């Protein structure tokens, strides 16, 4: 049975009150904090504020009987349609005053198909995880390669060296095939929720600033991958054509015995010519090495006053 609460918070100096529908009565206070952070971070994003700054410190509720605000310490204090207020971390001057009526509604992201569990006080929506996966998958193969992950971290300005990123990649690449699939990336988001959250907002910011260096780097990598795909396709076509040429030549030789005989003679002559030149090069190389050795020996004999050398003067 659904359970509704009114949750209010300060978003950019403005009180925002939302009616939140849970699929059932929340089991913990932290669950309410989780849902509040998700909802109001979205509100922050709509107002062009950094959503990462919204973090719940503690929650209070309004008790109608005493007409006072009290700390929410356990879910047994909850009643349906109760008014809650979320105090944020890092906002010591925040006060509860002039709470507006709920101006919008939201559903708690309770279904397991909609969220990935995140240790601590938050959850990550699967849509966010999917958005990050798509951003990292520059070459559109529905997998993430190490180079793509390195690019994503660099574009997002996360201060990790390539060795650290490689270790994260290896931890996520469960079957060690050099690629992270969507299923493997979901596990990555559970292990490193803060990392995925940061990637989501920072890469989103990159897309909103097309003239930034990070955005230009992204376009460059996309172009690089496109050229690599074209090169791979050209190499594949070349190998196909080379195979067809060999097949056509073989068919032509079988159909014309005289041509086959001439080609065999020509090939024999070419082989001999190559072998002769190869042996000439070996002789020249041996003569050069002998000459260099003789010179070194002569210089050594001069320094040592060798009597053996004197016999050849």
From TrEMBL:
The keyword Calcium applies. Pfam families: BILBO1_N, EF-hand_7. Keywords: Calcium, Coiled coil. The keyword Coiled coil applies. Gene3D superfamilies: 3.10.20.650, EF-hand (1.10.238.10). InterPro entries: BILBO1_N, EF-hand-dom_pair, EF_Hand_1_Ca_BS, EF_hand_dom. GO terms for molecular function: calcium ion binding. Residues 217-251 form a coiled coil. Residues 124-159, 160-195 form the EF-hand domain. This is EF-hand domain-containing protein. It comes from Neobodo designis (Flagellated protozoan).
């Amino acid at each position: 049975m659904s359970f509704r609460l009114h949750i209010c918070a300060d978003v950019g100096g403005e009180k925002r009150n939302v009616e939140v529908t849970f699929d059932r009565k929340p089991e913990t206070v932290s669950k309410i904090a989780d849902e509040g952070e998700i909802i109001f971070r979205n509100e922050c994003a709509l107002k062009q504020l950094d959503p990462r700054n919204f973090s719940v410190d503690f929650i209070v509720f309004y008790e109608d009987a005493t007409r006072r605000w009290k700390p929410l310490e356990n879910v047994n204090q909850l009643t349906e349609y109760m008014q809650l207020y979320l105090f944020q971390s890092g906002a010591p001057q925040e006060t509860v005053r002039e709470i507006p009526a709920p101006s919008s509604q939201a559903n708690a992201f309770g279904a397991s198909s909609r969220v990935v569990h995140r240790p601590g006080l938050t959850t990550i929506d699967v849509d966010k995880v999917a958005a990050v996966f798509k951003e990292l998958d520059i070459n559109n193969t529905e997998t993430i390669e190490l180079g793509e992950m390195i690019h994503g971290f660099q574009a997002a300005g996360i201060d990790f060296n390539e060795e650290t990123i490689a270790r994260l990649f290896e931890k996520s690449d469960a079957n060690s095939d050099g690629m992270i699939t969507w299923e493997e990336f979901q596990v990555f988001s559970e292990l490193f929720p803060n990392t995925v959250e940061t990637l989501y907002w920072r890469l989103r910011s990159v897309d909103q600033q097309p003239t930034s260096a990070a955005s230009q780097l992204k376009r460059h990598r996309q172009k690089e991958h496109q050229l690599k795909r074209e090169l791979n396709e050209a190499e594949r076509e070349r190998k196909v054509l080379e195979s067809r040429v060999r097949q056509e030549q073989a068919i032509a030789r079988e159909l014309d015995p005289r041509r086959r005989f001439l080609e065999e003679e020509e090939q024999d002559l070419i082989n001999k010519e190559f072998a002769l030149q190869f042996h000439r090069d070996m002789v020249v190389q041996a003569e050069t090495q002998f000459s260099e050795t003789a010179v070194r020996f002569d210089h050594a004999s001069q320094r040592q006053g060798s009597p053996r050398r004197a016999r050849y003067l």
